[in-house]
């Protein structure tokens, strides 16, 4: 029987030090692109791909995330009283139904692989998705939905992939390509954060995965990898090497923003604002004027 993907893990335990001092009191995932927290983009993408259960792997200081998904009865009442139906709808769309969302604490920052492993009992024996909310992908058909379609065919591990400049490969998990079939590539290995000049290709893993439960078993080994952390990449590579499972790279269509970096976050902010009818014109004018003034001053 063909398996469906209905559960997704959102690792959100990171400290977000690159955004200090903001992240002293605000979880990085609550920081907003235009008017929606990063995590909302991830949730919407998961829903569009048919995900029904949302598992957040959190850590100390992430309380604001749990509150964000709660109902806000007082606020709703106020908006209703004022007849602000549009805002009411927006607000309601962020609510999670009871039982739809689970929070799991990662007690120690032992790496992405460890964060995913923390959710193992909630996944049990099914294929599951992993979404890293830092990687925001603007696409006509959301990235995870594209991958779920591919999974329906392959029924094996799929990781989102994108070509990166050679000198940037060491910041990513990198695929060792067996056969390049265009949108999909089969792999014969993958390396987390390869040393400069040692990357097997320039096809990097981006933060969307559809994985089999075998990967969770491989994470049981708690093997430390790059940076001394338990790496998800290593467990996926082990599922291929030791259990003979296929691991595919999937070149998604869409534009990816690295919202774990300030530059990426700003670029995403501009791109998402330009996509909004009510903001486009003013922002375009402002950007044009600013660029013009900057160039003139040079
Ligand atoms: C993580 C993964 C890495 C992947 C990257 C994509 O790294 O470990 O394999 O390429 O996300 O954003 P991080 O960015 O958390 O260091």
UniProtKB/TrEMBL annotation:
<dbReference type="InterPro" id="IPR005771">
    <property type="entry name" value="GalU_uridylyltTrfase_bac/arc"/>
</dbReference>
<dbReference type="GO" id="GO:0003983">
    <property type="term" value="F:UTP:glucose-1-phosphate uridylyltransferase activity"/>
</dbReference>
<keyword id="KW-0808">Transferase</keyword>
<comment type="similarity">
    <text>Belongs to the UDPGP type 2 family.</text>
</comment>
<dbReference type="GO" id="GO:0006011">
    <property type="term" value="P:UDP-alpha-D-glucose metabolic process"/>
</dbReference>
<protein>
    <recommendedName>
        <fullName>UTP--glucose-1-phosphate uridylyltransferase</fullName>
        <ecNumber>2.7.7.9</ecNumber>
    </recommendedName>
</protein>
<feature type="domain" description="Nucleotidyl transferase">
    <location>
        <begin position="12"/>
        <end position="270"/>
    </location>
</feature>
<dbReference type="Pfam" id="PF00483">
    <property type="entry name" value="NTP_transferase"/>
</dbReference>
<keyword id="KW-0548">Nucleotidyltransferase</keyword>
<dbReference type="InterPro" id="IPR029044">
    <property type="entry name" value="Nucleotide-diphossugar_trans"/>
</dbReference>
<dbReference type="InterPro" id="IPR005835">
    <property type="entry name" value="NTP_transferase_dom"/>
</dbReference>
């Amino acid at each position: 029987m063909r398996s469906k993907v209905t559960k997704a893990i959102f690792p959100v335990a990171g400290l977000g030090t690159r955004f200090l001092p903001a992240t002293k009191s605000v979880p990085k995932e609550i920081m907003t692109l235009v008017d929606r927290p990063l995590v909302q983009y991830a949730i919407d993408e998961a829903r569009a791909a048919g995900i029904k259960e949302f598992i957040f792997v959190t850590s100390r200081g992430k309380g604001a995330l749990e509150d964000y998904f709660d109902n806000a009865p007082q606020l709703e009442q106020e908006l209703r009283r004022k007849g602000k139906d549009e805002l009411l709808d927006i607000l309601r769309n962020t609510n999670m139904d009871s039982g739809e969302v689970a929070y799991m604490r990662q007690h120690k920052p032992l790496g992405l692989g460890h964060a995913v492993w923390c959710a193992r009992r909630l996944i049990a024996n099914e294929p599951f998705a992993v979404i890293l909310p830092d990687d925001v992908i603007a696409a006509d058909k959301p990235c995870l939905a594209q991958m779920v379609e591919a999974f329906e065919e392959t029924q094996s591990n799929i990781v989102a992939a994108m070509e990166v400049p050679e000198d940037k490969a060491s910041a990513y998990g990198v695929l060792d390509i067996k056969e390049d079939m265009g949108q999909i590539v089969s792999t014969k290995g993958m390396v987390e954060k390869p040393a400069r000049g040692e990357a097997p290709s320039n096809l990097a893993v981006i933060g969307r995965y559809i994985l089999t439960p075998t990967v969770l078993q491989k994470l049981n080994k708690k093997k430390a990898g790059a940076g001394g952390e338990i790496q998800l990449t290593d467990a996926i590579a082990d599922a291929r090497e030791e259990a003979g499972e296929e691991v595919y790279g999937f070149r998604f269509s869409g534009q990816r923003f690295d919202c774990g970096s300030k530059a990426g976050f700003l670029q995403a902010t501009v791109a998402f604002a330009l996509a909004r009818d009510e903001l486009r014109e003013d922002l375009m004018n402002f950007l044009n004027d600013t660029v013009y003034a900057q160039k003139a001053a040079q």
